[in-house]
Write a structure and sequence with these properties.
The complex is a heterodimer of chains A (227) and B (145). Chain A has 227 residues and is an alpha/beta fold. Helix content of chain A is 34%, strand content 28%. Chain A has one domain (8-101, 149-226): Rossmann fold (3-Layer(aba) Sandwich), CATH 3.40.50. In chain A, 44% of the residues are buried. Chain B has helices at 9-16, 25-54, 72-79, 107-116, 129-144; strands spanning 57-64, 84-89, 95-101, 121-128. Chain B has a 4-stranded antiparallel beta sheet with strand order 2-3-1-4. Chain B folds into 2 domains: 9-52, no CATH class; 56-144, Alpha-Beta Plaits (2-Layer Sandwich). In chain B, 50% of the residues lie in helices and 20% in strands. The chains are: A alpha/beta (227), B alpha+beta (145). At the A-B interface, helix 2 of A face helix 1 of B.
Chain lengths: 227, 145
Amino acid sequence: MEKDVHLIEIVDVGKDYTSGGTTVSAVKEMNFYIDDGEFVSIMGQSGAGKSTLLAILGGLNHPTRGKVLVDTLDLYSLSSEQRADFRSEYIGFIFQSFQLVPYLTVKENVKLPMAITGIKTSKQEKAADSVLERVGLADKAGRLPDQISGGEQERVAIARAIVNEPPILLADEPTGNLDTDTAGQVVSLLEELNKDGQTIIMVTHNPELCQHTSRTIQVQDGICLVN
Amino acid sequence: MVYDLEKYRDKREKVLGVRKRGVSFGTLAAVVSGIILLGLSSFVIPKSLAYFSTRNLDDAIFKLQEVEEWPHSLIIELKMITGVKNAVTDSNNTRLVVTFDRTETKVNSITSLFNDQGLKTIMLNRVNHNQRKETMKEEAEFEAL
């Protein structure tokens, strides 16, 4: 019988940290899969291992054991160069603290991932205009990050994350720094992207946000409780 | 839900390096290095080959003491001696330069042929073949000035 294939498969993944002779398991053992087009939230308290799991999914943190398969690619058997290519081709990151470059305009921030992957300038302009239109910031393309609100900065971060059309969007507490209304707008934007087929994995400790997602993976003390 | 493996094939191939994106730095560096090496070797290899093929050659320069011209038959006979690579007279036909491999023959073998034919000769000089060629080249350049 043919094995089921999923966009993301986490197989017996664990991550230990050793410090001063003491080993701590941030992720003990996790097994789950995520299909293409899903909007999945990973929920848990601080220190539950959510962000470690997200970093492992994004090819940023080598697990101590287990396998991470993305589009059949065994992520941690790839070379570091291949894994860097994987991140630029497959993953869009959205951070809680936005991580925008303060001296670049909104549009230049959005164009940054395309410049790194060597996309032609004319194509960069077109794609940046298109995503800024999509996140409702076309009129603020020329502003610097500190000249726009926190919610708008988060939308710029989302635009930057999707501009290379990655199959997977990883969001680490995307509304953590926003007020309730602005957080709602950002989640609505993520829902819209998901309706258009974007796979989104969102780490949060806010149960209200999980209501907007199609599935919740509950993480506690480094293990999946509910999937 | 059935996963469509074709959907992200392009991305997968890029990651695995199946699909190349332009010329990598490594390839470019290899091509440039190759061109430089090829250019250098086109100078160095022929010179090295020439050096190794002529490093054992000496030139012995003879002058006749009594007769005025070197007999043509002598030059043919000289060339038949094992180790003698060449024998040429100068433009006035007064001096004879014999190029020979010192590992294969000695000057005595040449002079004994002159004695057999009753020719009284004097050896003016014996120098390394390459050294003499260099000297002649420098003289020619000097005269051209």
